[in-house]
Design a protein that fits this description.
2 domains, D-Maltodextrin-Binding Protein, domain 2, five-stranded mixed beta sheet, alpha/beta, disordered N terminus, 37% helix, 10 helices, single chain, 257 residues, three-stranded parallel beta sheet
């Protein structure tokens, strides 16, 4: 499967973009945002939102599954025209790429296997509980900086994929991990033996600026035309309830801004 994805990525990178053809990349390892089903198809909230946007702007979108930590570098290198992969809009990332308007919000939660952390009500409680603990995060994600900035006594371990984090939680190589709140339920369902559960208060942008201004699609900084087309499509899909409906399907609640 990985071989096929790498071949697909190479083919896509060689195809020049046109007004009606867009090269779109995602990291399909983060359900329910995006993942690969048993038939080898990419599915999830972002996939359906991306497809709706492509239809709205009347573009043929060629999708590629790319490791998350390679998304921004590949976009900057011109391999893709657009990325959609639960990418939070942050000031740091704005220095590198352009963003659409937000189409979703994504609070985060800490989780563990078996949860021996008990009831934790606030940030000081989380800081104390995580001191000296190994905390897993996806590399190049907003969570790496968030843990480093607010939980300095935690031991950060980075991973390429979320399923690797879950595997290490299950065998005790990690004490805890930080992911979008919406992902924990899907990860728990897909990995019943890992005995996953969240703990502590939910983290949101009001207290943790690293979580960004919402979730957006990424483009080259100088592609104003594509940004304008996508922003218009997002506005229409938010107004008519399309994205809210997709959110209900995948998350069970409305995650729109």
């Amino acid at each position: 499967m990985l071989k096929h994805l790498l071949v697909a990525a190479a083919v896509v990178a060689a195809i020049p973009a046109s007004a009606d053809t867009l090269r779109v990349a995602t990291s399909a390892d983060y359900p329910p945002w995006e993942s690969v089903n048993s038939a080898g198809e990419m599915i999830g909230f972002d996939i359906e939102v991306g497809q709706a946007i492509c239809a709205k702007i009347k573009a043929e979108c060629i999708w590629t599954n790319q490791a998350y930590d390679g998304l921004l570098p590949a976009l900057e290198a011109g391999q893709y025209d657009m990325i959609i992969s639960a990418v939070s809009i942050t000031d740091e990332r704005k220095e590198r790429i352009g963003f659409s308007s937000a189409y979703a919000q994504a609070p985060a939660s800490f989780g563990a296997s078996g949860n021996g952390f008990g009831d934790i009500a606030d940030r000081p409680g989380l800081q104390a509980a995580l001191a000296g603990k190994a905390v897993g995060v996806q590399g190049s994600s907003i969570f790496e900086g968030l843990v480093g900035n607010h939980f300095p006594d935690a031991i950060i371990k980075t991973y390429e994929r979320a399923d690797q984090i879950v595997a290490d939680l299950a065998i005790g190589r990690l004490d805890a991990a930080l992911m979008e709140t919406t992902s924990w339920a899907s990860m728990s369902e897909a990995n019943a033996g890992a005995n996953l559960s969240t703990f502590g208060p939910q983290l949101d942008f009001s207290e943790y600026s690293e979580l960004g201004e919402g979730i957006g699609l990424g483009f080259s900084k100088d592609d104003a035309d594509l940004k304008n087309r996508v922003d218009e499509a997002i506005a229409e899909l938010l107004a008519d309830g399309t994205i809210a409906g997709i959110s209900q399907t995948w998350f069970g609640f409305d995650a729109t801004p």
